[in-house]
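[C-ALPHA COORDINATES]
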Amino acid sequence: MLFREELSISDLELILDFTQTKTARLMGLLKTAGLVQSRRQDYWVFYKLKEESVELLQDLLGLMEKDPIFQKDIRSCEVMESNRELMINKLALRQYKPRNYD
Protein backbone atom coordinates (compact mmCIF):
# COMPACT_ATOMS: atom_id res chain seq x y z
CA MET A 1 0.00 0.00 0.00
CA LEU A 2 2.81 2.38 0.88
CA PHE A 3 4.54 1.45 -2.39
CA ARG A 4 1.98 3.56 -4.24
CA GLU A 5 2.00 6.80 -2.30
CA GLU A 6 2.13 8.22 1.15
CA LEU A 7 -0.79 7.38 3.39
CA SER A 8 -2.13 8.90 6.58
CA ILE A 9 -2.93 7.02 9.76
CA SER A 10 -6.63 7.47 8.88
CA ASP A 11 -6.07 5.89 5.45
CA LEU A 12 -4.24 2.95 6.99
CA GLU A 13 -6.94 2.49 9.65
CA LEU A 14 -9.58 2.11 6.95
CA ILE A 15 -7.49 -0.22 4.81
CA LEU A 16 -6.29 -2.48 7.62
CA ASP A 17 -9.42 -2.23 9.78
CA PHE A 18 -7.22 -1.44 12.81
CA THR A 19 -7.82 1.10 15.56
CA GLN A 20 -6.03 4.44 15.40
CA THR A 21 -3.87 3.44 18.37
CA LYS A 22 -2.82 0.11 16.85
CA THR A 23 -2.10 1.72 13.46
CA ALA A 24 -0.05 4.55 14.97
CA ARG A 25 1.92 2.09 17.10
CA LEU A 26 2.65 -0.10 14.07
CA MET A 27 3.80 2.86 12.00
CA GLY A 28 5.99 4.03 14.89
CA LEU A 29 7.66 0.61 14.96
CA LEU A 30 8.22 0.69 11.19
CA LYS A 31 9.68 4.18 11.47
CA THR A 32 11.99 3.14 14.31
CA ALA A 33 13.09 0.15 12.21
CA GLY A 34 14.03 2.60 9.43
CA LEU A 35 11.51 1.25 6.90
CA VAL A 36 9.24 4.30 6.60
CA GLN A 37 9.55 8.06 6.80
CA SER A 38 6.87 10.45 7.97
CA ARG A 39 5.84 14.04 7.50
CA ARG A 40 3.32 16.10 9.41
CA GLN A 41 0.77 18.28 7.65
CA ASP A 42 -1.66 20.14 9.87
CA TYR A 43 -3.36 17.47 12.00
CA TRP A 44 -2.25 14.51 9.90
CA VAL A 45 0.91 12.43 9.73
CA PHE A 46 1.67 10.86 6.36
CA TYR A 47 3.92 7.83 5.96
CA LYS A 48 5.91 6.70 2.96
CA LEU A 49 8.40 3.89 2.38
CA LYS A 50 12.06 4.84 2.48
CA GLU A 51 13.76 4.16 -0.84
CA GLU A 52 16.31 1.82 0.76
CA SER A 53 13.57 -0.40 2.22
CA VAL A 54 11.59 -0.94 -1.01
CA GLU A 55 13.53 -3.97 -2.30
CA LEU A 56 13.38 -5.79 1.04
CA LEU A 57 9.66 -5.17 1.38
CA GLN A 58 8.97 -6.23 -2.21
CA ASP A 59 10.59 -9.59 -1.42
CA LEU A 60 8.41 -9.96 1.67
CA LEU A 61 5.28 -9.03 -0.26
CA GLY A 62 6.07 -11.73 -2.79
CA LEU A 63 5.74 -14.24 0.05
CA MET A 64 2.49 -12.69 1.31
CA GLU A 65 0.62 -12.34 -2.00
CA LYS A 66 -1.48 -15.47 -1.50
CA ASP A 67 -2.70 -14.52 1.96
CA PRO A 68 -6.49 -13.78 1.81
CA ILE A 69 -6.34 -11.04 4.45
CA PHE A 70 -3.55 -9.32 2.55
CA GLN A 71 -5.55 -9.55 -0.69
CA LYS A 72 -8.55 -7.97 1.05
CA ASP A 73 -6.34 -5.12 2.31
CA ILE A 74 -5.04 -4.47 -1.21
CA ARG A 75 -8.61 -4.33 -2.58
CA SER A 76 -9.58 -1.89 0.20
CA CYS A 77 -6.62 0.30 -0.70
CA GLU A 78 -7.61 0.30 -4.39
CA VAL A 79 -11.19 1.32 -3.54
CA MET A 80 -9.96 4.08 -1.23
CA GLU A 81 -7.61 5.43 -3.93
CA SER A 82 -10.42 5.34 -6.49
CA ASN A 83 -12.78 7.17 -4.13
CA ARG A 84 -10.10 9.78 -3.41
CA GLU A 85 -9.60 10.40 -7.15
CA LEU A 86 -13.36 10.70 -7.67
CA MET A 87 -13.62 13.25 -4.85
CA ILE A 88 -10.72 15.30 -6.21
CA ASN A 89 -12.32 15.35 -9.67
CA LYS A 90 -15.72 16.25 -8.22
CA LEU A 91 -14.25 19.15 -6.26
CA ALA A 92 -12.33 20.36 -9.32
CA LEU A 93 -15.48 20.25 -11.47
CA ARG A 94 -17.47 22.12 -8.84
CA GLN A 95 -15.11 25.08 -9.21
CA TYR A 96 -15.91 25.40 -12.92
CA LYS A 97 -19.68 24.92 -12.89
CA PRO A 98 -21.72 28.12 -13.01
CA ARG A 99 -24.25 28.38 -10.21
CA ASN A 100 -27.88 29.24 -10.73
CA TYR A 101 -28.95 32.05 -8.44
CA ASP A 102 -32.66 32.06 -9.17
Summary: The chain has four helices and three strands. The longest strand covers residues 36-41.
